[in-house]
Amino acid sequence: MTFDPTDQGIDAEEAHERTTDAIADNEVVLFMKGNARMPQCGYSKRAVGLISRYRDDVATVDTLKNLDAFREALEAESGWETIPQTFVDGEFVGGSDVLAELEERGELAETLNAEGGAVASGSPDGADPEAPF
C-alpha cells in the first residue's frame, strides 16, 4: 500500500456531517490532527494530554482525513477554523491554549464535566498528561 498525500480521504459534505454528528452525539469531543494514541501536531498532543487528566471517555475526530473540509465545518460550528477544537455538551470550549488556561485557573475539570478529578494514573497527583485515552 502506497501513501498518497493528495488523497483527502473524505469529501466536504462528509466532513460536515461527521462534525455535526460528533458534536451532537458526544459529551466531550476533540477535533484534532491524528488520534489520541498518535497526535500529529504539538497542539493536538497538548489538548489530548490536558483532557486525559480528567476524562477517559472523550471522542476524537481525526481532521487529517480532509483538513480543509474539517476547518470549514468547524468554522461553521464555532466561528474558529484552527485545530484542535474541543466541544463539551455541544458547546465550543476552545483549542489547546484555552484548555491550558482553564487548567491553570483550576477550571478544566469542571468545564469537562469530570466527576472526581483525574482518571489517569502514573504520576504522584494521579494525572499523566502523556497517557493515551
TrEMBL record:
For region Disordered, the annotated ranges are 114-133
Q: Which domain of life is it from?
A: Archaea
| A Pfam family that the UniProt record links to this protein | Glutaredoxin
Q: Any idea which UniProt keywords this protein has?
A: Redox-active center
Task: Respond yes or no to whether keyword tRNA processing is given for this record.
Answer: no
Tell me where in this chain the Glutaredoxin domain is found.
Answer: 28-93
Transferase among the record's keywords? Answer: no
Xref: InterPro entries: Glutaredoxin, Monothiol_GRX-rel, Thioredoxin-like_sf
**Protein name as it appears in the record:** Glutaredoxin
**Where does this protein come from, organism-wise?**
Halobaculum saliterrae
